[in-house]
């Protein structure tokens, strides 16, 4: 049975600004890694049918072993749909030997104007069973908090 994880938050920046941060390589490296991780984009092609490869490294892997290696998660992300400034749909595949991380997870970032800001809702479908739901939702929320901090200080 497929699983869906969700998180959302209102960000004090217009949808176009938030959307831009979803499709900028340096921005993604700065805000996408959740607390306790850092990220590096190895490949970048920001168009429908394009995508990116990100290496996420745990700052302390003692309690959070990586999916790809002891201290890393490597994920190949394809851009399935880009609708400025409303939606970004990504298809993510983790590089892992453990079959519990296999499959393609779809991440839909929906942006809606909310007063002077943007309500950002992230929905992850077909989440691999090896990813703990509470940890995943906390990670998405952490990334959203980083995104808010990133775009709100830039505005």
TrEMBL record:
Belongs to the AHA1 family. Pfam families: AHSA1. This is ATPase. It comes from Planomonospora sphaerica. Residues 12-152 form the Activator of Hsp90 ATPase homologue 1/2-like C-terminal domain. It comes from the Bacteria. SUPFAM superfamilies: Bet v1-like. InterPro entries: ASHA1/2-like_C, START-like_dom_sf.
